[in-house]
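Table S7 (text form). Paired inputs.
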Amino acid sequence: MAQATRLLIDVAGGFVADLPSDRDINHPEIGGLLKKYLKGATGVPVEKRIKMLRLVEKMAMESADTISDIHGGGLSSGSPRNDISRNGYQLQEKLR
């Protein structure tokens, strides 16, 4: 099953990890733009495409080994720095 899920993720591309929420898609201000850019083949409603991508997302999240395949499975080198600055840690005080 894990191999099938990996293939689904490959076919779906980054949408599995980055699909906007339903709240965003239904938002009066940005919903239209999201639907415009999520549109696929002519004749396929964007809502059906989103449902298909949600299914892939749910299947992928059920398999623990595929979680890292979706988003790289690690921290970027800047993440710890961002966390330190975001949370207002007093680095100089900690070094003393």
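Next pair, protein 2 of 2.
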Amino acid sequence: MNNNKHLNDVVKGRLLIVAASVLWGTSGVVQSYAPIDASPAVIGAFRIFIAGLFITSFSFFTEQSKSFKDFFTPALIFTGLCQAFFQFGYFSAIKITGVAVGVMVAMGSSPVFAGILGVLFEREKLGARWFVSTLLAVSGLFLLMKTTNGSVQIETFGILMALLAGFSYSVFTLVVKRLIKTRNQDRVTGMSCLIGSVFLMIFFFVYPIGWIFSFQGIGVILYLGVISAGVAYLFYGRGLKFVKVSAVGTLTLAEPLTAAFLGVFFFGRTLDHYFGYGDVFNFFIPDGCYFK
């Protein structure tokens, strides 16, 4: 009975991680509709600030304990810093390299970083399943990128920003998984978003923020904050309780797959045989390994 319950919890956790990743995968497309003077850092700051308010409000009304006094620890502040680096790197990469390459490099690097961190800090063992699924997933990313009219324009700084995002996300996953062992997952993710937004607020003095008050700006930020971050992190926090750090990186490859599909419908990207192969290698085979 206990083994069946554990198995059900693991499957449920993986499904929640995938659901969160699908919502994250819509971020790049939605960001592209932001006003032209919207900077990546400001978008990221507003996004996680709204997400933090949404998640902490949700936890306040659904949990019996209303106290936050034990949440302002160095570890939680560090997760906020990871959030800030992720948002800055992720949206900068998307703006520089485009949605397809930015999302795919950021999240494609995540399984590698997550696997290494899981071994170093969680003593997780990387079996053949992780190596095979990660290799197939990364191969799929290159195939998906090749669908962009057969070529991809590589911007070195944009790639570095995407790698920064992938690494920051993996470190965030590691620390949050440790914190939610003794704390409510919604408060951990919510407070990390709020703290991360504070780190990014310095950019309010560097880049224009007037666009946020436009109808277009409000719509973009509300979606990014409430849906693609707020609801996504509610799923993510619950799923992370039952999923290994090394597995999370591979499961979140649903994000670039979502971005690739949305690119077809919103940006007119061409579907070809590479796209089909990329889907299989990027998501269906690797993530299928984790649902066995």
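The first helix runs from residue 2 to 24.
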